[in-house]
Amino acid sequence: MILALCFLAMMATSARAESTAEHAPRVVDGLDLQRYAGHWYEIARIPNRFQRECASNTTAEYTLRNDGRIEVTNRCRKENGKILQARGIARIASGGNPARLQVSFVSILGKQLFWGDYWVIGLGEDYQWAIVGHPQRKYGWILARQPSLDNATLARILSRLEEAGYDPQNFEFTK
To answer: What are φ and ψ of residue 25, in 5° steps?
Structure first.
């Protein structure tokens, strides 16, 4: 009986993983991490627990490291005006596609723990904007090199989000 329950649990997990892979958003082709690195402004995001204190001025800084990983520094302004900062590390996920990254903000004794998926699913030809998503669409961000985007570009991005299976209504714009 226990063996049968274990088998059923494994099958359910396997089916869920296959379902996720089949329906996951498509990542961009040929992401150049050198061009992607640098300063980004958050334009909008799906609200999440780890940014709940961020009231405005949210940015991300990506710096390539010699070991092939990426140093990540996220900043935002809290309601009280203080700056909140989180530092982490990103790595290319298994499979070697640089558009499928994993990020960790938890380090114990130099070991990164709790890696989360960070997929680049949309990108302007000139690397002036990006859409970052998650395989199950739990998270999402619209990023830009400038603090705002023109209406035509934003409309294209929102259309791409829909094509990727996201509901643009779930995104809140950053102050």
So the answer is: -65, 150
